Amino acid sequence: MSYSDLIQKTREQSRALAQAAPEAMKGFAGLSRGVKESGTLGVKEKEFVALGIAVAVRCEDCIAFHVAALMKAGASREELADVLSMCIQMGGGPAVMYAAKALACWDELAAK
């Protein structure tokens, strides 16, 4: 499955969850907006933090969403590689595997 397909599938599943658990998803959406719209860090920096956590916890769906958000926020592939290097330093072998997925996601989305 391509990362574009993964993002679309995850969005569809999230919409279904929002219908089944509307208050929980409204709360999560509000938390997400509040965190991104306040504080001293910009959206790009916050998305890099989120990507680092996604690599650490091995959430491929999260990786795809945060890579796409980073592209929208103006991040470069070089910045991505630098952050992924830090993920590898902190996470060892498993982080290598998921950092590679994040880079593959970037390359696929950038090619479109």
SSE string, helices as H and strands as E: HHHHH
CATH superfamily: AhpD-like
* Number of E-state strands: 0
**Given the C-alpha coordinates, what overall shape results?**
globular
Give the C-level CATH assignment. Answer: Mainly Alpha
Largest sheet: none
- Mean pLDDT, to the nearest integer, reads 96
Helix count equals 5
C-alpha Rg, in Å?
A: 14 Å
How many angstroms separate the termini?
Answer: 15 Å
From the 3D coordinates, which CATH architecture would you assign?
Up-down Bundle
Number of domains: 1
Q: Strand-residue fraction?
A: under 5%
Oligomer: single chain
Indicate the structural class.
Answer: mainly alpha
CATH topology: AhpD-like
List the uncertain runs.
none
Helix content: over 70%
Folded structure, characterized:
87% of the residues lie in helices and 0% in strands. The chain has 112 residues and is mainly α. It has a single domain (3-111), classed as Up-down Bundle (AhpD-like), CATH 1.20.1290. Helix 1 (3-20) crosses helix 2 and helix 4 crosses helix 5. The longest helix has 35 residues, at 77-111. The two termini are 15 Å apart. The model has no long low-confidence stretch (mean pLDDT 96).
Give a quick rundown of the structure.
It is built from 5 helices and no strands. It has helices at 3-20, 22-37, 43-57, 60-72, 77-111.
